[in-house]
What we know:
mainly alpha
Amino acid sequence: MADWRNPEDYTYTQGLTLHQWAWEFLRRNSDYRDDWRAFEALEDPIMHTAEQSSVYRSASRKWGLAYPVDPSLNATEADVHFAQAVNHLGLVYGYASDGNELVTVLEFDLEKPISPQVQIAEKYLLQQQGEYAASGRIHPAASKSRPHQQRHLYPVYIRLLDGHLEGVGTRKMGDLLFAESPDPRQRARDGLRSAKKLATSSYRDLLLFLDE
């Protein structure tokens, strides 16, 4: 990871798409890093073994990735493909296999009651259709206010995560990153809380939005 103390180490984040930001947060997730180490520890990572297939399926289901990616690679270095995302209704969805972002693929769990899943899917599709019509645009998500409002904070968020991964406390990080704040430590605490949320689950929300 980059040195959280040095802002120059984060210049690569300028111009990242929301999907690339999703990867920047996910690769700082300790659980994902543990899963990558487990995958890397397989005896023959080149051959497509049953164990490797299980890891691939686990990565797709658990993290929404098409395949595991080395977390040491930043968004400009890694070839990352998110296979699916979970929207705010808890619905698992993805794009069509040909990459057409105007086609939504929904996933249903056959071990659970179908009717509630269909109701959630219908609510989601109608909501999307209404947003597209109101905006005059056809995109998987019409509203982009939240990610765009927070994007300017993302470089600071990943610096906080990198410091946290090193075991640095919020007091020290706050003194460096929020020196002008009346309460630098609290700012660091609040920022780290938001950053952790993005790294553990909310990175998926970024996959709902398209960059202009």
